[in-house]
Predict the structure of DUF2380 domain-containing protein.
Amino acid sequence: MILRTVAIYLMLIGFAQASFASGATKTAIFPFEMVIEQQMGGVGLPPVPNEAERARLELITDELKRLLKETGKYEPLDLSSVNSDIEEQTPFNRCDGCEVEVAKKAGAELSVLGVVHEATAVLLNVSIFVRNVDDGTLRNSMAVSIHENDDKGWLRAVRWLVKNRLSDQEPQK
């Protein structure tokens, strides 16, 4: 009798967790990309972030995923099944919404793309773009300028954008 009660209890917890997760919008959060002003004079080549910048791009991508998941409104999807598409089509910041097709392939309802634009060594703009996967409509775009080109500054920018520009809004499907 006790085992049966425990089994039913565990099953109810599982159903509750599944229903909570299903209320969140399936979201493809793409790795942050970088635009480096000093490299824009090249012959159409994408900018090449240095090792520290690549590590920061990964750091803030992970932070964005964590923060959006914590709101309970977004369900970040595992994009490993579309890694080859991501590698083939990046940088997405040059194609005005082409990431939507990759997000659709991953089963997402929304796509989120972050871009760090380095104007100078100490002036950066961090932007986030949210698109509806069904029709590619830009639902939200936000940006903040920072004067700290280090982990702390980049993380502060992402946290500020999520807190002040994204978390109070309902995801629009």
Q: What stands out?
A: The chain has one domain: 25-166. Helices lie at 2-22, 51-71, 83-89, 99-105, 151-166.
